[in-house]
Amino acid sequence: METREYAVPVTYVKCAFCTAKNHCAACSAELTGDLRARSGVADAAVDLLAHTVRVRSGLAQTDIEDLLEGMGLMAD
Prior knowledge:
By secondary structure, this protein is α+β, with helices and mostly antiparallel strands.
């Protein structure tokens, strides 16, 4: 399976910690760890302040977006 790198802009984040959408590095780190643990994901980096998610994976982009949405991240 070929591994690709995706940069996905995030337009809305459902954050369990920050109801006012004041996202921080702790939330980014937790989501990064959760994403890295998902099947099919080789590496990931979530940056909520920059509203981006970078994922290296063999999954198709639509599958990555579905995965992100399941984690509460809305991909653009």
